[in-house]
Amino acid sequence: MSLNAEIKGLLQQEGCNIVGFADLRRLPKEARQNFDTGILIALAYTKDAMRELKSGSMRRYHDEWKPMNPRLAELALLTADFLTGKGYKALAKIPSMVVQDEDMRTVLPHKTVATLAGIGWIGKCALLVTHEVGSALRITAVLTNAPLDCGTPMTTSQCPPNCAVCADVCPGNAPLGGLWEVGADRDTFFNARACRDAARARAKALLGLQNETLCGLCIANCPFTAKALGYDM
């Protein structure tokens, strides 16, 4: 059994069915911390959570979102331990290790690992979009020196240029209308601060949460999400 298959099998046993493998060597060594490959691990939201979120209720979305970060951390650590047990080096990029600067950027976004693994592309709302579940997922990554068979990177957006659904529903008007491609600066197509501020206001208004960045309207209303999960737009 190949190492890729072993890792996928390990994660599938834990309920994780979206796994990708990325060649990181096109990135600066500092960004990838001298590791050559990355493993993208994802957990998906349910159809019911997305359908209810689209209809205006955030409760089920919140209830699924809240345990996802600790669960993703567990899966990343499990994968890293598996690799170190095989004699490789591995680093789980758990949430406590991911530092954002004042512009809300990280040195190596999980989304970059995802696009390099061919899992998906960056949508107009700066979220990862996949054919499997649209953008209804959360992700983490493991960096390693293990020799893995890596996916074909996605380098351009597959969002239709004339689709404006996420922009139309965004309470912060954060999507700016541009399309992502490799090398494009986020700020040319998305206003991250506007997204954060509007999401925090929405989470406070609907759920009484303080300083929680939670909205999800762009996720639930994305045509790729609706098509993948099987509910009406």
Written description of the protein model:
The longest helix is centred in the N-terminal third of the chain and has 18 residues, at 68-85. The protein has helices at 3-13, 47-55, 59-65, 68-85, 110-117, 165-169, 192-207, 217-221, 223-229, and strands spanning 18-23, 37-44, 90-92, 121-122, 128-129, 137-144. The strands form two sheets. A four-stranded antiparallel sheet has the order 1-2-6-3, sandwiched between helices. Strands 4-5 form a two-stranded antiparallel sheet. It is globular. With 233 residues, the chain is α+β, with helices and mostly antiparallel strands. Helix 2 packs across helix 3 (59-65). Strand 4 and strand 5 (128-129) form a beta hairpin. The mean pLDDT is 95. Helix content is 37%, strand content 12%.
Short structural description:
With 233 residues, this protein is α+β, with helices and mostly antiparallel strands. The protein is built from 9 helices and 6 strands.
Task: Name the descriptors.
globular, 233 residues, single chain, 37% helix, alpha+beta, 6 strands, four-stranded antiparallel beta sheet, two-stranded antiparallel ribbon
